[in-house]
Amino acid sequence: MSDCLFCKIIAGAIPSNPVYEDEWIYAFRDIAPQAPTHILVVPKAHIADVNGITEENSAIIAHIFTAIPQIARAAELTDGYRVVTNCGVHGCQSVQHLHFHILGGRQLSGEMG
Ligand code: DGP
């Protein structure tokens, strides 16, 4: 199996708290939540980060962004939420498998960086 942490979570080799799954993507609770609701949405195919998005795999990214509103609705984020993806060292990416954070459940800071 791949040495990637999120590939292991997707495969079920490391336990996680799922909130959504389909053929292409998996969403689960962040282990260290930074907001009352903190969900990670990942493609099942290993893409390292935003720099790994191509014409060939971009349909998965579009699919993620159609699933995110459904996931947010199911999580009752009726007053809004933030979607974040970190990339590389300056972006503070700590897991090298593309993931989108859904953060909500309280008024978030206006600071972005
Ligand atoms: P980033 O720093 O953008 O690469 O975000 C990685 C996120 O992954 C971070 O918010 C913490 C979360 N995380 C790290 N290890 C685990 C884990 O084993 N399980 C879960 N559910 N989340 C994890």
Computed over alpha carbons, the radius of gyration is 14 Å
Strand order of the largest sheet: 1-2-3-5-4
Segments where pLDDT lies below 50 for 5+ residues? none
Largest sheet report: 5 strands, antiparallel
How widely separated are the two ends?
Answer: 35 Å
- Calculate the mean pLDDT score and round it: 97
The ordered string of helix (H) and strand (E) elements is: HEEEHEE
Number of helices: 2
**What structural class should be given to the helix and strand makeup?**
alpha+beta
Helix content estimate: 10-25%
Shape: globular
Q: How many runs of DSSP E, i.e. beta strands?
A: 5
What share of residues are in beta strands?
15-25%
Bound molecules: 2'-deoxyguanosine-5'-monophosphate
Q: What does this entry look like structurally?
A:
The protein is an alpha+beta fold and 113 residues long. Helices cover 21% and strands 22% of the residues. It is built from two helices and five strands. A five-stranded antiparallel β-sheet has the order 1-2-3-5-4, with helices on one face. A hairpin with a 3-residue loop joins strand 1 and strand 2. The longest helix has 17 residues. The chain is globular and about 35 Å long. The protein starts with a helix and ends in a 9-residue tail after the last strand. The model has no long low-confidence stretch (mean pLDDT 97). The structure holds 2'-deoxyguanosine-5'-monophosphate. The site of 2'-deoxyguanosine-5'-monophosphate has 14 residues, from strand 2.
